[in-house]
Amino acid sequence: MSEITLQGLEKQYGETTAVEDVSVEINDGELLCLLGPSGSGKSTTLRMIAGLETPTEGAIRIGGEDVTEQPAYDRHTSTVFQDWALFPHKSVLENVAFGLKMRGVSEDERHERAETMLERVQMGSYDDEDPTNLSGGQKQRVALARSLAVNPDVLLLDEPLSNLDKRLREDMQIELREIHEDVEETFVHVTHDQDEAFTLADRIGIMDGGQLIQVGDPDEIYENPKNRFIEGFLGDTNFVEGTVESANPDLVTVESELDDTLTIPAGEDHEVAEGTPLELSLRPEILSIDRLASDAEGTASEADEEHEPMLADGSVLNTVTGTVDTVLYRGSTVRYSVSVGDSSVFVERTDTTEESLSVGDEIRIEWNGSDVLAFHTDGTRVGI
């Protein structure tokens, strides 16, 4: 049985539609991340699951029970908020035990349960501490312990790590994942941070404009995005415009803005015809770069000009040449902005021990045509 089922969920505020026709099943014990930009409807969806907002339309079931009209205090859920919302006049232990007190649990039992949860989040020695003396990461752990102490069927997390600095946020992502594996409860986690979603999630749901666009395993979402928005949102990429020059059951060739014809291996059932405008996504990780060899007069050598276009496995190698415009050092990576024809692309090297390139260097950029994703001008994915 699915722990949470959302069916046709919609939320309107006046004439504004914040969430539109969201349907998904979240499995028992799963950690689902709702990922999207600000205003995409992810937090509103979470608040409807929590009972803090009432859907305009649609249904919510938890553990098979219809809770659409049920108030928050009757649902077996607990929520961790972005601002942690700890009581400053209560000790850490009292904060964690508060929810149990509201449920009528005896003092001894709630303190024992609170102490167990504090140990679980590595805050066992802070029972009597004033929450105002805690660091951001410690406050987050206490808030998490408080939510887990009531033993919810579902834990809802609304961007709980967004107020932490980068290093602490990364540490807490790992800890949160370990806690989820330990307690084996259903988690729904809202975030706008792609790295956070990929670190935490069993599955990711991408939201935009109030709609749930795609749900899948992290690698599925990344490797097979449903549309251009998802491809661009999940990481840096180069979008290159072009027009299909020819299309047959084996190859599609595209006359591109890189002043070169690009080739993509195709299947017999590809969806493009000659003259179709496309946008091609060239992610930096699929691009390899090398400085062009030069002869005595400083021009590209004949060997470079006759570079072999086929890879050993029979797939198609695409090659363009360009000039380095800018070099951006990022510690573990170096990003190069390269002029290619009348356009520009960025490429990266993760191995900074390689011979560095400089502004003005002539370089060759290569990639396997099979690694390219193509999109129609309306943003929908092209099957090639």
TrEMBL record:
Which residues does UniProt call coiled coil? none
Which Enzyme Commission number(s) are on file for it? 7.3.2.6
Catalytic reactions of this protein: tungstate(in) + ATP + H2O = tungstate(out) + ADP + phosphate + H(+)
Record's keyword terms, sorted: ATP-binding, Molybdenum, Nucleotide-binding, Transport
Q: Which GO terms describe its cellular component?
A: ATP-binding cassette (ABC) transporter complex
Q: What class of enzyme is it?
A: translocase
Q: Which Pfam families match?
A: ABC_tran, TOBE_2
Signal peptide: which range, if any?
none
According to its UniProt record, where is this protein located?
Cell membrane
Provide the topology term for how it sits in the membrane. Peripheral membrane protein
Q: Where is the ABC transporter domain?
A: 4-234
Give the transmembrane region(s). none
A GO molecular function annotation here is: ABC-type tungstate transporter activity
What is the documented function of this protein?
A: Part of the ABC transporter complex WtpABC involved in molybdate/tungstate import. Responsible for energy coupling to the transport system.
Q: How does it assemble?
A: The complex is composed of two ATP-binding proteins (WtpC), two transmembrane proteins (WtpB) and a solute-binding protein (WtpA).
* Family from the record: Belongs to the ABC transporter superfamily. Sulfate/tungstate importer (TC 3.A.1.6) family.
Q: What is this protein called?
A: Molybdate/tungstate import ATP-binding protein WtpC
